[in-house]
Write a structure and sequence with these properties.
Number of helices: 3
Number of strands: 9
Structural class: alpha+beta
Shape: globular
Strand content: 25-35%
Largest sheet: 9 strands, antiparallel
Distance between the termini: 56 Å
Length: 146
Amino acid sequence: MKKIGFVIVLVIGVLVMATSFTYDNFVAPNEMPPAAQLFIQNHFPDSKVTLVEKDINFLSKEYTICLSDGTKIDFDTNGDWEEVDCRFSAVPIEVIPEPIAAYVTANFKDFPVVEIIKTRRTYKVELANGIDLRFSKYGHLLDSDD
């Protein structure tokens, strides 16, 4: 019985240590993954990178990039975007999957997308009027929240 209690305490201790191994580090723009650098060059050519924060977790790294125009972009370890928040302007249309862009253009033509978040299964889109739309990874509307 004492062995089982010791093993449980040991496992909990290892899990606590493993999940607490995260830290943020500010790095130079050239330390971003090449795919992230290319994404910024292609979609935000007039903006400068003002801040690169590398978040090191137990098994991965994530990057949060701030641009001179107020845009904030989150990238995963490989440099694939996870979130684009353009706060003061529209998300570039090329970033938005075509079915989602077509839906927004057809139904909300006066309200551009100002933020898009990509997960494994869905996209969450915020429009300039504050409406949130959630789409499947294939671009089918799942729900809206206004």
